[in-house]
Amino acid sequence: MNPIYPISFSIGIYLILTIIGIKKSPVFPKINSVYVLFRERFLSGRTKGLVGTYKNILEVVLTDQELWIRPFFPFLGFAFLFKAIHKIPVSDIRGIETRGGETTIYFKNNELTEVYFSINFNKPQLFIQTLQQLNPAIRILEINH
After folding, report:
1. Does residue 35 belong to any structural domain of this protein?
2. Residue 49 — pLDDT band, cuts 50, 70, 90?
3. What is the average pLDDT across 123-134?
4. Which of 12, 34, 58, 96 is the most exposed, fewest CB within 10 Å of its CB?
């Protein structure tokens, strides 16, 4: 077998996943067209029920109306498969839990089921304070471990 075939096959699968991920992902407006209250890039995180984490590929943006959790471009296909792309209305965020260096965000998804996403923020307290100003009803739980 020619050694180029497995590489070509892998690249083809990656491109197909990326195209599907781009087409099925929520549409995010340009960052300069929204009122950004909080933004951090190159974050790590994990989502409910799936093995593995996202290492330094996530961007979190909090606007005056939505929370965006999304990876950078080359990772869109895999992120779509593993549900790492979210565009969440602030009103759908149910709670925040901090444990050590990890902040877990609980929210309702499009199917109206509660899910969570855990993120290692650089400035977790700033994120929580900004989010609480937008929606004071969000419950906050701090666990010191």
Report:
1. no
2. low
3. 95
4. 12
Tokens of 125: 């307290």
67 within some domain: yes
Q: Report the mean per-residue pLDDT for the chain.
A: 82
**Residue 67: how many CB atoms within 10 A of its CB?**
23
Does any domain span residue 34? no
How close are the terminal C-alpha atoms of the chain, in Å? Answer: 52
What domain range is 50 assigned to? Answer: 4-27+40-143
Whole-model pTM?
Answer: 0.81
Strands (E), 26-92: 36-47, 54-63, 66-71, 86-89
Contacts of 70 (CB under 8 A, 6+ apart): 25, 28, 58, 59, 61, 79, 84, 85, 86
